[in-house]
Design goal:
mainly beta; 38% strand; disordered N terminus
């Protein structure tokens, strides 16, 4: 497995591009990875076809259905519904623009994420590397369970996999090298495997946030926000798209220091469904060499 691919595999989870091999990305040809925060709060509930957990009583709606629903009007004129009303879409706030509105949305996103303890989703990821003038797309399925279980199983490139079993991240990319498995430790508490915590925890203190308006993601209206780091970061700019009805982030886009742009879209989200332990196990295939990073 080449060094770029192993770095890219870990880049979006611990938010440290050097987590698996040193240096910054300046070349390569690999899909990278993404996960979403999970945390135990609330019991499962079914809303509009997706299984979800209602968050703690705040001005935030319980997660609802993903693709397949008719989109709501995206005018941004909906008035907020008081917390605890139980009405889907209660958290949708006027899209007036400006930093204050973005901070309000980020607060709701963080509180909604606190009610999610497991997540399953299809993902589509694109990577644009301007230095090489290349564009690549990867697809697959991801699972996460709070605090330190994570699986990313690729259908394109077929057979590639990344697993966090509570102690280690295992990365096996047979599409690149069938002979090597990369392994790296997970810090106590599992924060490396908690993507949304890394991006969104205390976000208003860590980023200058701007609301850019409402766009459509997978047929659903979503607030488009731009986050600029206030201090040193492996990313110049982060963009997120927050579903207006359930406050779940459906799309992430990261512009890296070398101007590479990674975009990850999550589709068919299912939250707080039972997730088997067996998903988060990995045994290195016979004949492979395990490289510790």
């Amino acid at each position: 497995m080449d060094r770029y691919r192993s770095r890219a595999a870990l880049a979006l989870i611990p938010l440290a591009l050097a987590a698996c091999g040193g240096g910054r990305e300046a070349q390569g040809d690999a899909p990278s990875n993404v996960a979403v925060n999970t945390q135990r709060r609330g019991e499962p509930a079914t809303v509009g076809g997706d299984t979800a957990a209602a968050p703690a009583p705040v001005a935030a709606a319980a997660p609802s259905a993903d693709a397949g629903q008719a989109p709501r009007a995206s005018s941004g004129a909906d008035a907020p519904v008081p917390a605890g009303s139980g009405t889907a879409g209660a958290a949708a706030a006027p899209a007036r623009g400006g930093r204050q509105d973005a901070n309000e949305i980020l607060a709701r996103v963080e509180q909604t994420a606190a009610g999610v303890r497991t997540l399953e989703a299809d993902f589509v990821q694109t990577l644009h590397v301007p230095l090489l003038n290349t564009d690549r797309t990867s697809t697959g399925k991801l699972y996460q369970r709070k605090p330190d279980r994570f699986l990313m199983r690729f259908t394109e490139p077929a057979g590639d996999v990344m697993v966090a079993d509570g102690r280690h991240f295992w990365i096996y990319y047979p599409s690149s090298d069938r002979t090597q498995v990369v392994r790296t430790g997970i810090a106590e508490g599992g924060e490396q495997a908690d993507f949304q915590r890394q991006f969104l925890s205390n976000a208003t203190a860590r980023f200058v946030a701007t609301l850019n308006g409402v766009e459509t993601v997978a047929g659903r209206p979503a607030y488009a926000l731009t986050l600029v780091p206030r201090r040193s970061s492996p990313y110049k700019v982060i963009r997120i798209w927050v579903d207006r009805e359930d406050n779940l982030v459906r799309r992430f886009e990261m512009t890296e220091e070398n101007d590479s742009v990674r975009r990850v879209e999550l589709r068919n989200l299912k939250v707080n469904q039972p997730v088997s332990d067996a998903l988060f196990t990995f045994t290195p295939p016979a004949g492979t060499q395990v490289i510790d990073q």
